[in-house]
Structures
1.
Amino acid sequence: MKKTDEKRRSFLQYSVLATLGTLFGGLVKLNSSVYAADLPLLKESDPVAKSLGYFTNADQVDTKKWPKRSGPDAKQQRCSTCMFYTAIDPKHGKCQIFPNNTVEANAWCNTWSKKPA
Ligand code: SF4
């Protein structure tokens, strides 16, 4: 076999692998976002949510009980600005702290940490 044939074969093999990798990666990403959207919305009554001061509306947080939400950056504190949040759509997202649920973009809990810029 000629050296150019070997190079051509290698190039084709790499191209096929790269294409399959791209397709597979896209399917995994698509599948995970569809899966995340199917998770139930976290409720304030959930025992773990309650213990972390989860409120579906960040503006209704009991700041006497959860003073972290009354600091100078309080108005910015909501799930959509939290480092643990990944948006699914404009109003909902996934939270790493509650992997079996989705959370509201406008919610808040005491684990809130500012998303890095
Ligand atoms: S950790 Fe962040 S994203 Fe998760 S519920 Fe609390 S504030 Fe929202």
Note: Residues 54, 79, 82, 84-85, 95, 97, 103, 107-109, 111-112 surround iron/sulfur cluster (CB under 6 Å).
2.
Amino acid sequence: VNSLNIILSNEPGADLARLLNAYTQVAVLVDENTRLHCYPLVKDLLPPHLCVEISSGEIHKTLATCGQIWDALTEAGFDRKGVLVNLGGGVIGDMGGFCAATYKRGINFITVPTTLLSMADAGIGGKLGIDYQGLKNHIGLFQHPSAIVVHEGFLATLPERELRSGFAEVIKHGLIADDYYWNLIREQEFAKQQWAKHVKHSVRVKQAIVTADPQEHGERKLLNFGHTIGHAVESYRLIHTPSPLLHGEAIAIGMICESYISYTRKYISKTDLKQITGYLLKVFGKESLGADAQPAIIQGMYQDKKNQGNKINATLLEKVGRGKIDEYISESEAREALDFYEALDIISF
Ligand SMILES: NC(=O)c1ccc[n+]([C@@H]2O[C@H](COP(=O)([O-])OP(=O)(O)OC[C@H]3O[C@@H](n4cnc5c(N)ncnc54)[C@H](O)[C@@H]3O)[C@@H](O)[C@H]2O)c1
Ligand SMILES: [Zn+2]
């Protein structure tokens, strides 16, 4: 047990039952996939409860879906002593938490992450919210759940593409905080990775950073490595193309670009850059973004919530295993980094 009350659990049903003991009203939020694959693993051990199902996917992380959740709680007569269990990936965690934190000015909620991304990242840190008018996580708040129950066993049914996407954050945690761990990861191909171990490591890294800086004034920005360019790539693919990328897939591209900038600033060596780039390409493949993409991606970088005024705030690598926050990058640097990525399959670096 720790300040964020993260429970690494082998028996999520039993652990939830214990946590829910104190409540008379319990609701479990699922989507159709977590209802099918995750809910059966805990259901029989839970006290009597309401199960609220919403449609899966980022496109449903909206105010309209919040309406469905609030309606379900209202119709069931939920009062402020009720509790909401968010059983799912980052969408369920962010949106369910947001709904709970605002329902009747706030009821308790418990996060049960079921994707690698949410176990390693989204489920920890108290950022809650929804997308609004096409802007990601535009409306939301900071609030920690009363507990986070992390059970690696849920990963057994997760589609491989989702697993790979979450892996990007695991890799990020090595690169910004633990070079030993990064070296351990990069010696193994994707199929041989030890997920239980990675989940524990990522939980530890993220928890330490979030505890030190809950509201993202300083150290927490370390977690943004790969995200300044990565987010812009993610939005570009979502808005302007029929082939969106998963979050981690975009972040992998962002990490290559931002490692490249770290190299041009002489923070990391050419060998480091080669290792990072080589490994990320091996795991995630190469996505051609196309020459037309650049203006939109650069434009997207200005949308970042972390910016101040017109400056593009990024987190780079000071060295492998240590991030460097509050590095301001210029448009031309971003362009050069995207060019570097685009050319990767033809350059043998
Ligand atoms: N709050 C934060 O700090 C934070 C950090 C990073 C990302 N996020 C948010 O997280 C979201 C992405 O999270 P995600 O990648 O978990 O996406 P997700 O919640 O959409 O889950 C991905 C897919 O996997 C399915 N699924 C979930 N668990 C499963 C399981 N065990 N077996 C089979 N299928 C399963 C879901 O139904 C969904 O179709 C984004 O909205 C992003 O903004 C939040
Ligand atoms: Zn991320």
Note: The pocket of zinc ion (ligand 2) is lined by residues 121, 169, 227, 247, 251 (CB under 6 Å).
3.
Amino acid sequence: VVRELPDLVPGPGTVVVDVEAAGVNYPDVLIVAGRYQLPVPVPFTPGSEYAGRVSAVGAGVTRWSVGDAVMGASRSGAFAEQVEAADDALSPVPVGLDMVSAAAFHVTYATAFHALVTVGAVAPDEWVVVLGASGGVGSAAVDIAHRLGARVLAGASSQSRLELAATLGADEGVSYLDDDLKRRIRQVTGDGADLVIDPVGGPHAEQALRGLRWGGRFVSVGFASGEIPRIPLNLLLLKNVTVRGMDIGSISTRVPGARDDEQAVLSRLVAEGMRPLVTDVFDLESSPEALRRIADRRARGKLVVQMV
Ligand SMILES: NC(=O)c1ccc[n+]([C@@H]2O[C@H](COP(=O)([O-])OP(=O)(O)OC[C@H]3O[C@@H](n4cnc5c(N)ncnc54)[C@H](OP(=O)(O)O)[C@@H]3O)[C@@H](O)[C@H]2O)c1
């Protein structure tokens, strides 16, 4: 339901943001379904990513002023006209992004960048396999990897999804429902891929891992397929493969400042023209349809709920 609630009032160290747009992410679907790793107590307002303007600042806040354009992430509460956030939980909207783009940018681009660069150590000319390449995190990973000079083999469930990944710079594609993923990786890369970015999990994960070269890297980002893969460890041993996981939410809270350098590079890429691929915008009343589209695997790129 969409319902009027009293205006929020900031507490010490917090600000109130008038939300202009909220990104829709796969975890929102899991949270609403009660299937997320960290449950959110009911009742709650869905939505975990937003962009808007600071409308009130609490005692002790020096970082932000009324009117500042900010973006933020939280487990819930973003599909609303206002959110309250700790002052250190917000980032400035990069110059050049409008509010709809900013709402679609924060989570997926930060996640994809961290996976590719900080965890995956991607280098120019390397072959990167991106699974779920037309989804939110996947499309951001294709975009960033291409802009950093890597070569991208996009994996997706249909040709039309691969065409979308190609518009973001994917050099090659594999429709993994029709084609043998490991064989196709070998065919495209020769020795095998250098790096796999996997937001999907399921049976494709092991096939992609088997497509890595000796010494290759695999970054586990999520399980949009609903299936957490179990990888035989001998695959890692024999080829000196590194598998790493990452969780962008806990990195930001456990290692404050760790992502400042990443933010600077992302802002530079935005200044050079990088934009998230927003394929549809919904009003607040239609936000269940946006969630449904993601749950039913019908979404491409990013969906956004616009408040104003
Ligand atoms: N580790 C982190 O810090 C972090 C941060 C953000 C998100 N995530 C996770 O990353 C994953 C992707 O998130 P997202 O926002 O990019 O999601 P999304 O936009 O819905 O994209 C997910 C992609 O997964 C593929 N997929 C395969 N089986 C699916 C199924 N049964 N249902 C839905 N999609 C399916 C789809 O591509 P095809 O149809 O082409 O296969 C889809 O494009 C989620 O598991 C999310 O929780 C992790």
Note: The CA atoms of residues 38 and 170 lie 34 Å apart.
4.
Amino acid sequence: MIPEPTALATFALAGGDFRLRRAVEADVGPIVGMMARDQLRSSVDSDAPERRAPYVAAFHAIDADPAHLLCVVDDAAGSVVATMQLTLLPGLARGGASRLQIEAVRVAGRLRGNGLGTAMMEWAVAEGRRRGAALIQLTSDLSRYDAHRFYGRLGFAHSHAGFKMVL
Ligand SMILES: CC(C)(COP(=O)(O)OP(=O)(O)OC[C@H]1O[C@@H](n2cnc3c(N)ncnc32)[C@H](O)[C@@H]1OP(=O)(O)O)[C@@H](O)C(=O)NCCC(=O)NCCS
């Protein structure tokens, strides 16, 4: 029998009960499915089974490194409905402070606007503190106005300009 993955947090919200846990390989398909349905990434990501191999390889690279925590959230029926990736980055700046980087935050379309993203991010902030991070950073595409409002309300300051180069 496959053991039940340990819950890192549970959320009782108006939209139902949810469980946040570390992702396992079987979650790769649902996670990539959420990315593929994202309006900005639908041309890049695909959850087609024949394209699964590089995502599974990336999952194992993440999972093998204790600096990373790939999270998923299950609904009461056990379906994966949200994800985010946390990474603790050591650094010399700010007196040798570590920072928590948050990447790839997604809540399934049908559940957006019900408080699940807020619950996940509040947990991530507490987890960053618990791991000794002195700050949390993330980037968000400039076109994601709704997400910018979301992060602003959570207390993130729009204090830096992000630069990226696609290779
Ligand atoms: C951004 C996101 C993670 C927030 O999760 P959520 O569970 O919807 O958020 P909450 O219900 O806790 O908070 C509501 C806020 O989220 C944002 N939000 C709601 N629906 C959204 C949507 N479809 N797309 C983007 N942001 C949304 C809004 O700021 C909303 O506040 P509002 O009521 O003032 O409009 C989620 O909506 C999502 O996955 N959006 C699409 C992908 C994305 O933009 N991810 C962030 C990448 S940096």
Note: Helices lie at 28-36, 53-63, 93-96, 116-130, 145-154.
